[in-house]
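Objective 1b: paired records.
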Amino acid sequence: MRRTRLFSLLLLASAAALAGCSSRLPTDPGARTANSSLRIRDPQQDPPAIEPDTTPAPTAPAANETLLVVQNVNGKRGGSLTLANFHLVIPAGAFNGTAAVTLRQPDPNVPLVEFVVSPSTKATFKKPATLTVDLSSWTDASIAAAQVLTWDSSVGDWVPAQNAIVDPAARWAKATLPKLVSTRIDD
């Protein structure tokens, strides 16, 4: 019995020692697996030259840089979400239960916000939400011509938002939204 145990132990130790020397293990510095593209640089070699970045720093967000905020809102308590220049307030008692509310601005340079409410049955409110848009970066002429538009899927077009106000002196626009639909500010 002792001899068998000793033999088994020796056999196990030999197998472990041989496996540790294998070049087919992923822990081997030179090993590469079929899915691996990792290369380990020899510390004796000079590091690759890094070219200075000649790209000018952007002055505004890229046109394809989508902004997004998601928040779980308890309809009984209400809540608020802010995304860039858009601020949405959902009043207490707007809906029953909890919903995930998403504000998405596909292009930070365009004053358009899209809403997603999940579950979608919570998107129509018992008490309307208020969307306020900061227009402080707009020119006076643009604010004077500004209007709040919402997407009307029944006609497939943008229509003036009901109960919308543009305040040129305060430099903001505000809309009361009984249902969260895509909303934009046009000048």
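Objective 1b, second protein:
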Amino acid sequence: MSDIYYIKNLKCAYCEENNDFEEESMKYGNVGLPYAFEFGGEFVCDECKEKNKIIMDFVAVKRKTSGAAQEVDSEKDFDGWNRRKKQLHKSTFNDYIHARDVWWCALGVNIGVEADGKHENFERPILVIRKFNQDSVLVVPLTSRPKQNPYHVPFKHEGEEFSAVISQMRLISTNRLLRWIYKMDTSIFKMIQTSICEVVFQMPITNRPPLARGSRWPHGRK
């Protein structure tokens, strides 16, 4: 038994441009770019063109050997998430929820390129796109690692850069919602709505169905 190493992220030490390999690698069953000790050829940053000044984010995964075949264990905690999921299933959501709300959400441990939660609650911030009823909402995961592609809609909140990952939009039970964070600015929300309509559904935003109606400002939230 030995460890196999994967590079999850390369960051330029000059301009801090990120090269995130994790999401793309998951399509092939890996958790990052496989690392070999002969790795270390010339690295040139796409953004600032500086050479060989990088910060690597590694993850080590146990490797099993069975005959001539080798299989890499997944680092995902499916068993831990299953226990937490049973608790959430039995819980009851009694708070108010509306479009534009940003919450910590127990997205859990999922398959392939599906967005996972992190830490002990398997959580990730999400944006509520539409409320269907008290039990179900349509959400988009948020990330602090924006990418330059049509499925990441970049925005800033309190000076920090984020993006809404519209390709990961999904329906969830409100039992997954853990803690309210803030109400997103209307102009940013409309920008994300427009991207969803145009990129995901390939339709103009004027044709979208109306949002759920109801009480707008519970607990003084605006």
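The chain has a mean pLDDT of 77. Helices lie at 22-26, 78-90, 186-200.
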